[in-house]
Design goal:
Distance between the termini: 68 Å
Structural class: alpha+beta
Largest sheet: 4 strands, mixed
Strand content: 15-25%
Order of helices and strands: HEHHEHHEEHEEEHHEHHEE
Strand order of the largest sheet: 1-3-4-2
Oligomer: single chain
Helix content: 40-55%
Radius of gyration: 24 Å
Number of helices: 10
Length: 263
């Protein structure tokens, strides 16, 4: 599809979203053309699934969708078709990127996506506070972790030593590409916490990979009986949490949540 015609189609979709789609039309951010999604749209036209197309192009989406328009002869027709038939799909303001492909025979493939983003390192403190709040909210309510039932537990507080231990283990796992409570040097959670300067009488650890947000990390731990039990153990008084991103593959994020009771 020629560049000018592609740009016209992108502009038509953006005008449809701004003028017709969603309750707060003026607040809709414009979609930005992505070459990766342009290629994904071409692969869709050639019969591939959206998931396969994104995998082949290397585009990582938090969520994505595609639509096909037939018989739209100009950008005004694209705008009318999008606003008349596809507003529900395109109104989400989190959508940021768009890709377009036309086969020259009157069919147009459009892919829109919310791009995958990793937690930003400068937001580490905010991430820690959010995980703490989510963990304490879970502890405030009785729950079953597998076959074990736990009553409400007192809230935890953050402590720098446990955060250091969590950070060291997350960085170790990210750098060496593994997920385990044993460190690359064979260390246990208790040994790592001691190394970080925490004098403890009880210690526990939760780890996770493949999740991008604090909410997803805590939800995953609560769904795992062992990790859930750590969260609900009343004897713990403090915690530290950290994530690390694999430098070779920024889409891989690993998390560590360390729990302790000081001596």
């Amino acid at each position: 599809m020629p560049g000018a015609a592609r740009a016209n189609a992108v502009g038509a979709v953006n005008r449809a979203r701004t003028r017709h789609c969603g309750p707060s039309r003026a607040a809709q951010p414009p979609l930005i053309e992505s070459r990766g999604l342009d290629e994904a749209a071409r692969l869709l036209a050639n019969g591939e699934s959206l998931g396969q197309a994104e995998l082949r192009t290397g585009y990582r989406a938090e969520r994505s969708l595609w639509i096909r328009i037939s018989g739209a002869t100009d950008d005004a027709a694209v705008e009318r078709t999008v606003s008349g038939r596809f507003c529900d799909q395109l109104a989400n303001p989190k959508l940021r990127h768009i890709g377009v492909y036309g086969n020259g025979a009157g069919s147009l493939w459009i892919v829109v996506a919310e791009p995958f983003t990793t937690p930003r390192i400068r937001n580490t403190a905010a991430v820690s506070r959010l995980v703490l709040a989510l963990t304490n909210d879970a502890r405030a309510h009785a729950r079953s972790c597998g076959w074990r039932h736990f009553p409400p537990a007192p809230p935890l507080s953050l402590t720098p030593a446990l955060a250091r231990a969590a950070s060291a283990h997350s960085q170790d796992m990210a750098a060496h590409g593994f997920l385990s409570h044993s460190g690359s040097d064979g260390s246990t959670p208790g040994e790592r916490v001691t190394r970080a300067g925490y004098r403890w009488s009880m210690v526990g650890e939760n780890i996770a990979s493949g999740v991008e947000t604090p909410q997803a990390a805590v939800a995953g731990w609560l769904a795992s009986p062992h990790h859930c039990a750590n969260i609900m153990t009343a004897g713990f008084r403090q915690m530290g949490v950290a994530f690390a991103v694999n430098r070779a593959n920024p889409q891989v994020i690993v998390w560590t949540e360390d729990f302790g009771r000081p001596r």
